[in-house]
Amino acid sequence: MSETIAVIPGDGIGREVVPAAVRILDELDLGLSFVMGEAGDDTRSDTGEALPDRTVRLVENSDATLFGAAGETAADVILPLRAAVGSFANIRPARAYPGVDAVKPETDLVFIRENTEGVYAGIENEIEPGITTLTRVVTDDASRRIARFGFDYAAERDDPVTVAHKANVMRATDGQFLESIDGVAEERDAEYDTALMDALAMQLIMQPEEYGVVLCPNLAGDMLSDLAAGLVGGLGLLPSANIGAENALFEPVHGSAPDIAGEGIANPTATVLSTAMMLEHLGYDDTGTRVRAAVEETLEQGPHTPDLGGSASTEDMTSAIINRL
Ligand code: ATP
Ligand code: MG
Predict the structure, then answer these.
(1) What local confidence, expressed as pLDDT, does residue 1 receive?
(2) pTM: predicted TM-score of the whole model, two decimal places
(3) H or E segment at 224?
(4) Which residue owns the Cα nearest ligand 1 atom 20?
(5) Which stretches are transmembrane (predicted)?
(6) 52-92 pLDDT, tens digit each
(7) DSSP letter at 7?
(8) Is the CB of 266 under 6 A from ligand 1?
(9) Cα(226) to centroid(ligand 2), Å
(10) Are 73 and 41 a contacting pair, CB within 8 Å?
C-alpha cells in the first residue's frame, strides 16, 4: 500500500520547512509517493489565483496533505484546503520539551478546535462604508461531531477535557456549543469542565499543568493555541492536524514568517512534528513515534535554530534529526 501525499510548501519559510520534512520522509523509505502542489502569494502573482483548481484536486485525490504556509493569501488558501479535506477538527498539541526554554515547562496541552463554523464560516458583510457585520454559525451537528472527536482523543490520552466558551455573552451560539457537547458527554458518561475563554487564557498561563484537552470554538482555538505556543518556547514548535472523515491535512501552526524567510534559519520542528502526526494518521504509528523521538532528542541536545537560542540552520537541525532516526 503506497499512499500519495500532496506536498504544498506555499510561501516564506514554508519553502524551507516543508522540504526539510520531505527529506526526513525520504529517509524513512516508506514507499510514499509525493506530488508537489502550488498555492500562496507567489502562485497568485504567477497565475492570478492563490489556490489553483489543480491544487484542490490534488489534495482531494491524495491520502494526506503536508502544507507549509501562505502569506497574505492565507485565508484564500488554507480555509478552502481545510474544506477540501472535509476537515472538521483541528488538533494542536502544545507541549514543553526538555532542552527548550519554556515559560511553563509543565505544559502538555492539546487544543481541539472546531474547524468549520464560528466566525470563520466567513459570513462577513459591509452594509455601507464604515458599517460592517459578521455572522457566526454554530450548529448542533458540528458541535456534537467535535465533541465526540474531542472526548475520544482525551480518553486515549487519559486527559481531562475543558470546554472553552463565552456563553454568558454569546448565549445562542456558544450556548449551543455547550449544550451539544453536554449532550455527547451525557451519552458517554464522560466528565468535563467548562471555562470562560478569557479566564481560561489567564489560567493557561498561570497553571497549564491543570489542563489536558481543551475543546474550543474556531476562533478561540486559534488564539489559545498561539498563547500556548508562547508557554512552550515559540511557534517554531507547534504542529497541527486538520482531520476529516476520509482525508487530512497537516501543517505547522506558524505562518510564513516573512521576517526570517529566505535565511535558512526557520525551525523545522513544527513541520516535522506535523509529519509525525501524518504518519500516525496513516497508520505508521511506530514510524511516527521514531520521528518524534528523534525530534525530542534534537531539542534536548541540539543543534538549535536561532528561535531556540542556537545558531544552527534549518538544514543542520534537520540533518541532526535524520542522524538520530
Ligand atoms: P503570517 O502572516 O504568514 O502568519 P507572521 O508574520 O504572522 O506571518 P508567523 O509565521 O505567524 O509570522 O510567525 C510569527 C513570529 O514567529 C515571527 O517572528 C516568526 O519569525 C516566528 N516564527 C514562526 N515560525 C517560526 C519557525 N518555524 N522558526 C523560527 N521562527 C518562527
Ligand atoms: Mg501569523
Answers:
(1) 61
(2) 0.94
(3) helix 218-232
(4) 257
(5) none
(6) 999 999 999 999 999 999 999 999 999 899 999 999 999 99
(7) E
(8) yes
(9) 9
(10) yes
CA of 118 to the centre of ligand 1 (A): 25
Predicted confidence (pLDDT) per residue in 294-317, tens digit: 999 999 999 999 999 999 999 999
Amino acid at 174: D
Looking at the structure, tell me whether residues 205 and 111 fall in a common domain: yes
Q: What is the DSSP letter of 36?
A: E
- 119: confidence class by pLDDT, cuts 50, 70, 90: confident
**Is 98 within the bounds of a domain?**
no
Cα gap 34→32, rounded to integer Å: 6
Decide if 297 is inside a domain.
yes
In a domain, 164, yes or no: yes
CA distance 209 to 192: 16
CA dihedral 284→289→295→299, nearest 10 degrees, is: 160
pLDDT score at 135: 94
Q: Which ligand is nearest to the CA of 266?
A: 1
Residues 76 and 185 in one domain: no
Whether 139 shows a pLDDT value over 70: the answer reads yes
Distance 261 CA to ligand 1 centre (A): 9
Q: Are the C-beta atoms of 259 and 14 separated by less than 8 Å?
A: no
Q: Could you tell me how many residues make up the chain?
A: 325
Domain count, the chain: 2
> Which of 232, 264, 281 is the last residue before a domain boundary?
232
Shared-domain flag, residues 226 and 120: yes
Q: What is the CATH number of the domain that holds 169?
A: 3.40.718.10
Give ipTM to 2 decimals: 0.95
Q: How far apart are the first and last CA of the chain?
A: 23
Tell me which of 17, 232, 235 to substitute to probe ligand 1's pocket, judged by most ligand atoms within 8 Å of the beta carbon: 235
Instruction: For 173-202, give one letter per residue: b (16+ CB within 10 A) or e.
Output: bbbbbbebbeebbeeeebebebbbbeebbe
Please give the residue range of the domain that contains residue 23. Answer: 1-92+237-324
Give a yes or no: residue 97 inside a domain. no
Percent of the chain with pLDDT over 70: 100
- Here the cell at position 323 is 542522524
Task: Give bridge partners of residue 287 from the DSSP assignment.
Answer: none
